[in-house]
Write a structure and sequence with these properties.
The relative contact order is 0.10. This protein has 4 helices and 12 strands, in the order βββββββββαβααββα. The chain folds into 2 domains: about 150 residues, Immunoglobulins (Immunoglobulin-like, Sandwich), CATH 2.60.40.10; about 30 residues. The strands form 3 sheets. Strands 2, 4, 5, 7, 8 and 9 form a 6-stranded mixed β-sheet that branches. It has a 4-stranded mixed β-sheet with strand order 1-3-6-10. The chain is α+β, with helices and mostly antiparallel strands. The chain starts with 10 loop residues before the first strand and ends with a helix. The chain is rod-shaped. About 45% of the residues lie in helices and about 25% in strands. A hairpin with a 4-residue loop joins strand 11 and strand 12.
Length: about 250
């Protein structure tokens, strides 16, 4: 159907900056034939930058909201969003009202004979005869949970995601720190082993130097060494004794 031919989404009450009891406000609008669900929005500005109420109300066209608005004479603006069966979304016009106390709220005059305009009669009939729904945010939360878009679930999922990210960062930091400590320990172990090996090599070199200084090399290629006289005499005597034994 062409969008120009679609029935408009008209707001009935409250309208024209009328004063209402902020403790219990009944919102009424005309039904749209192809609407599948309605969303009620109330804000402190006409641009709806700061939403006070943003609730899906199903197919209801008369909703009573209790204890959600102040009673200090502030002006609020409201509108209704309708989602049609074909997935399109239509937005109503914007109406305003003043939230005040029940005593200061404007009381409507009773309906008189057929002199009132049809729209006014429809508004009064909707407010006094139609079954209205006292808005409960717990009910809204349950409906949103069924649709999978509950704010509580979204917030919980965001918190869970942030917590998981923090835990992951902490685990990575711990792993990096552990790896660093392990690397330092391995380096210290290797350094200690190198020092021990160096000491052993140094000890062997010192012993070899001491032997060379004690005996002295006469001919390195022939393996001839200079040794003390007493040691030489002992070797000669030993060789002479061994030769006599063999003969």
């Amino acid at each position: 159907m062409d969008s120009k031919k679609r029935p408009s989404l008209s707001l009935l009450a409250p309208a024209d900056a009328v004063s209402v009891d902020g403790g219990e406000v009944t919102f009424v609008w005309e039904p749209v034939e192809d609407a599948e669900t309605y969303s009620l929005q109330v804000a402190s500005t006409a641009r709806f930058e700061d939403l006070v109420i943003d609730a899906e109300v199903g197919t209801e066209t008369a909703v009573t909201v209790g204890n959600r608005l102040p009673t200090d004479g502030r002006t609020f603006f409201w509108r209704v969003l309708a989602e049609t069966k074909d997935g399109a979304q239509r937005t109503s016009s914007i109406e305003s009202f003043i939230a005040t106390t029940g005593a200061e709220a404007e009381h409507e005059a009773p309906v008189t004979g057929g002199k009132e305009e049809p729209v006014t009669e429809l508004a009064r009939a909707a407010r006094h005869e139609a079954t209205t729904e006292t808005f409960d945010f717990a009910d809204q939360l349950e409906r949103e949970k069924e649709r999978g878009v509950a704010y509580e679930g979204v917030a919980a999922s965001r918190i869970t995601g942030i917590s998981a990210s923090i835990i992951l960062v902490v685990l990575v930091a711990v792993a990096i720190l552990f790896g660093w400590f392990e690397q330092v320990r391995q380096n210290e172990k290797m350094e200690s082993a190198d020092q021990q090996q160096y000491r052993q090599i140094r000890q062997v070199e010192l012993e070899a130097t001491e032997k060379l200084q004690q005996y002295g090399v006469v001919d390195g290629e022939e393996d001839v060494y200079r040794i003390p006289i007493d040691r030489a005499m002992e070797l000669i005597a030993t060789e002479e004794y061994q030769q006599r034994q063999r003969s």
